Fold these 4 entries.
Entry 1:
Amino acid sequence: MKKVLLIHGFTGDGKGVWFPWMKRELEARGYEVFAPNLPNSCHPDLGEWVNALEPYFRQLDENDIIVAHSLGGKASLHTILRVRKKIGQLILVAPAIGKRANEEWENMQRTFPDDDIGALRRFWECHLPIEEISNFTKVALIVSDNDEIIPLSNFNDVPKDWKKEIWIGNGHFCINKIPCLLRKIMEK
C-alpha cells in the first residue's frame, strides 16, 4: 500500500486546513495516510519537528509521497537530510524556504502580532544544503501567484531539477479542499 505523509506548517496541526479532506480522499483511494501533529506549532523548534517526523520518514520508501505545507516544507527537507534514504516524491506546497529581508520579518510581526515570529524566523533561517535534497527524492514545488505569506521571489534559487509549478489564486493554500493537489499526489 502506498503511503502519504502530510506535514502541516506554523500554527497548524494535522487536522487543519485541507489535511482532513486530503486524508479522507486518499484513504478512500487505498493510500495509507499519516497527518501527525507536530510539537509546539505555535512556537516551532526545528529539532523538535525533525525528531517528531523522523519515525514517519523511516516508514517511507521509494514508492511513497510526502506533502509538506509552509514551515512543514522546511522541516521535511531537514528530515530527509537526516534520514538520508530514498523517498518517492516530495511535494512542497508554499514551503518556508528562501531568504527574507529584515523588513519582511518586521512586517510579518506587525501583520501577525500574536504569533511567535521570532521562533518562526529561527526555524526558517536554519542552514539547509538544499542542493542535496535531489539525491534522495524528486521534488515538486507548488506555489501560488498571490501568496500573502511567501512571495514568488523566495523560489528563484531552488535547484533546477525541482519541478516548479505556479498555481493561480491559491494564496497560502489555507483552504479546506485542493482538488488539483489531490490529482498531483495521485499522478505518482
Entry 2:
Amino acid sequence: MRHLLTLITMLLVSAQAFSQNANELKVYYGIAHSKILVNKDLNGAPGYDNDNTYEFGFKYLNKLTERFGIETGINYLHSRVEITPAFTGTPVNSHFENLNLLSIPILANYTFGKYFFVNGGPLIDFQLSDASFDSQSGIGYSLGIGAKYHFDRFLIFLNPNFKRHALIPFTKEDYPQKLTEWGLQLGIGYTF
C-alpha cells in the first residue's frame, strides 16, 4: 500500500513540473444519502439503515491542460448506521454503530463550458471504526458532475456525486456488504 501512495505522489509531482496551468486547492463539506447494500438477499440477515451521513475534506486539482486535470485529496465520511436484527418471532431492538471512513480519491476532472465539470475515478478507502458489518476498506469509485464559479483567484463549487465503496475489498467476504452513497459537496477553493 505504501508503494501505491508513493507512486501516486510521484506522478502528481512530475505532472506538476510540466504543468503551466492554474491548479486548485479546495475545501468542502457534504451531505449524503447512504446505504449498506448486500449483493444477494440473505434470509436471516440484519437490516441496515444509515442516517446523519456527512463528509468533509480537501481536494487538489492538478491541471494538465486547460480543460483536463487529475484531482486527489482526502475525504472523511461519517454515518450513523441503525442495525435491526432479523425478525425471529420475538421483539428485537435495533442498535446504532458509527461508520467512519477515510478516502483518497484519484479522479479525472474535465471542465466543459465556463462553469461545469465532470469528475470520476477510483477511491482508496480505509474504515476507521470497528463495526459488526463488513469493513468498507478497499477500492471503490466516484462519479460526479458539478459547477464552479471563479472570482479572482477564489472559487465556489457544487459537486453532486455517486460513490460505491469496497468494490474490491481489502478483506474477502462471502456476501460482501458495500456502502453506496449519493452525495452533494459544497466548497470553496483557491486557484494558483
Entry 3:
Amino acid sequence: MTQPSGVEHPRTLVIIPTYNEIQTLPTAVRRVRENAPWVDVLIADDSSPDGTGAVADQLAGQDAQVRVMHRAGKEGLGKAYVAGFAWALDRGYELVVEMDADGSHRAVDLPALLSRAEQADRPDLVIGSRWTPGGRVENWPRSREAISRTGNTYVRLALGMPVGDATAGFRVFRADTLRAIALDEVESAGYCFQVDMTWRVHSAGLRVVEVPIVFVERTEGESKMSGNIVREALWRTTVWGAKHRARQVGRLAARAGGAISDGVTGLRGRVASARENRPDGGRSPEQ
C-alpha cells in the first residue's frame, strides 16, 4: 500500500460492491485512487451479466492496489459487504470503507471521512451523512428526499438511536468495530443493511459520528433501490424497535421490582430494630 511521503495512515480498504456497473466502475475507482492514493480498493462483483467483473479484472491488472472478489451470483449489498469485511479483517486492514460504484458517493469527500476516523478520539463508525448540518443531496426529486428523511426519522424514533442518516452507505468502520459485532448474524439487504449495521454498532455501546457529505444522484446505469428494499427496511426496523422497547420495559420493571424489594427489606429491618430497642426487648405481654 502506497502512502504519501511523510504521512502515515492506517491500512485502509475501500470496498466497492458491484452489480451491472460497467459504465461507472472505472471512473469510481480512478477517483478513489486520485483522492486517497494510500488506500487499497476491493471490488466485490456479484457475477454481473454486463461484464463488470471483466472490467474489474482489467483495473486490478493495471493497479496493484486494486483487487477483485468474484462472487457466485447476485446476493445483495449486505452479503457483498459482509464478505468484503471478512476479506479485510483476514488481511489486517485497520479501516474499512463502504462506497458505492455509481458516483453518488463523491471520492472527493473520502479524505474527510478518513481524517475523522483517524482522529485521536477514534470513533468506531464514521458515517458520510446527507442529513447532518452541511450535508445535502443533488439531483434528487422531492419524493426521494422525503422518503429518505422520513425513513431516517422513523429509525431514530423506533430505535432511539441518535443518528441523522442511519441509511447512508458511505461510511468508515474501524476493524475492531467489525470484530465486536456479530457479522455472521447479519442477513439484511441494501437499504436495511445500513440501518442494521448502525444499530449493531450503537447497541454494542460503540460510538457513531457523522460527517457531512454531498450525495449526487447517479447519472449512468440503473438504481438498485426498489419498493421491496424499502419495505424490508420498514419491517425489520419495526421488529428491532419493538424488541428494543420490550427490553427497555423489562429493565424498568426489574429496577422497579428491585426497588420495591429493597424497600420492603429495609422496612422489615427498621421494624425489627425498633422492637429490639424497646425497654421490654420487644417481647409481647404474653411473653
Entry 4:
Amino acid sequence: MSLPALPLAPGTGRGTVLFVEGPETWSVPEQDAVVLAVREGWWPRLEIVSQGVRACVTDGSGLASRPSLGVAAVGGIDRDLLRPGEVVEVDGTAGRLNIEGVSEQPVVTALLERADGKILLLRRSDRVGSFRGRWAGVSGFLETPEPLDQALTEVREETGLPPTALRLVRSGRCVLARDGARVYVVHPFLFRVERAEVRLDWEHTDAEWVDPEEITRRQTVPKLDRVWKALAGPADARKS
C-alpha cells in the first residue's frame, strides 16, 4: 500500500519499522536497514546515518524541528498504520510511504443524526466477517464509483431508511484504519434524519441513539471516533 506523506527530507530509504518514543528510549538499532517511526517534535542525532537507519517517519508535520538527518524523512503518517518489524519504503522527495504486504480496502461509513444531536450506533452481529459485537455506524465496502451512492445504499439496506428520508449534512476526509494486513480507507458521511425508527438487517443486532461522546466509551470498530471527528462541524450548523 502506498500512502501520501509530507516530504521532510529528500531521498529514499527502505527498511524494517522501529518505533522510538523519544530521546529517553533512543538506542542504536541492533539490525541494519531500519526505518524509525518517531513522535512529532523530536529527531535522532545526525550520526544515525552510520548506525543502520535508512529513513525516518513522523506522525506530525515536522515543522517543530525540521530534520537535518542525511536520510529520507516524511511526516503526517499515523503510526497506528505501521507495525514493528514490517518492511516499508520512504520517499522523502515525492512524499510517499509504501508498506509492503499491506492492501487497502475502500469502505463507506454513514453516521445518522437526529435533530437533538444524537447519532445512531449499530452493534455488529456474529454473522458479519469482521469486528463482531462491536459498535459502528452504517458501513459497507465501496462497490460503486461514487462513495455517496454507496453510503445511501448501505443506509437503506441496514436501517430501512430510503434516500428521501435523509439529508446530507457533510462528507469528511478519508480516515485510515488498519486491521492486520489490510487498511480500510473510510469515506465518512453525516446524514440528518427526521424519524428515529430503523429496521435492522442481519448485519446488526442492536441500535441505539446516543450522544456522540459515547463513541469513546464503547468498543467500536477501529477509528470510529476519528470518523466522527472528520464529520463533526459546529453544533449550530448541524442543527440548521
